[in-house]
Amino acid sequence: MGKWKTTMPVYAVITAAGKGLRMGGDLPKQFLSVDGRSILSRTIDCFAPYADEIVVTLNKEALALWESIVSEESGAVPTHRIVIGGETRFQSIKNALQTIPDEALVAIHDGVRPYVAPVTIENCLLAAQSANAAIPVQPVVESLRLLEPDGKSRAVDRSCYVSVQTPQCFWADRIKKAYCCPYRSDFTDDASVYEALYGVGSVVVVEGNWQNIKITRPGDLLFRPWVKDR
């Protein structure tokens, strides 16, 4: 970890209770294998150097499957604790946060983002330690258009927008209070839940890494960030 250090205990919450319907097939995407290791295993591995404890949310019906994957990977999966998820991502994260002490930093990360860079994790945690809440972002590289209710569209300035990634990092006591709010449909990530309580501008942004994709569709399984371009 080099000079990286926080003064608070760090907890990582890896959310993996989803059904992964957009991937197709019978197996949820977080359990699919990439070069001999499950996506979820690779994701957990990213946080082992940083977290005092790793908490993974899982669907109750997936427990036996995950146990078999852990056994097959023969000790490659870092130590972690399981929390049963809810019907939504919001409820799953809320369940996990209830098991974490107030005096800590928490990094909340998608279970299907196995390529987050160490520097992204470090920068987010350090920024959250000083500013209470931090998220990684990347510039938008494609043109954007705004769809109006009448079906028409118009071009917008992409320099005004960024693409949001995880981990999203917070002081535990503050994000736990935010998750006591009733669920809303515009809660698309943890930062939006946090801002609903603490206001716009309460979350700082840090640079993410472009390889930190969210594996969603079959073509994403072909991505290999460790393979150099020829």
UniProtKB/TrEMBL annotation:
Q: What InterPro entries does UniProt report for this protein, alphabetically?
A: IspD/TarI, IspD/TarI_cytidylyltransf_bact, Nucleotide-diphossugar_trans
Per the record, the domain of life is Bacteria
- Which Pfam families is this protein grouped with? IspD
The GO terms this record gives for MF are:
2-C-methyl-D-erythritol 4-phosphate cytidylyltransferase activity
Does this UniProt record's set of keywords contain Nucleotidyltransferase?
Answer: yes
Q: EC number(s) for this protein?
A: 2.7.7.60
Keyword Thylakoid assigned to the entry: answer is no
Q: Which UniProt keywords apply?
A: Nucleotidyltransferase, Transferase
What name appears for this protein in its UniProt entry? 2-C-methyl-D-erythritol 4-phosphate cytidylyltransferase
Please name the source species: Porphyromonas crevioricanis JCM 15906
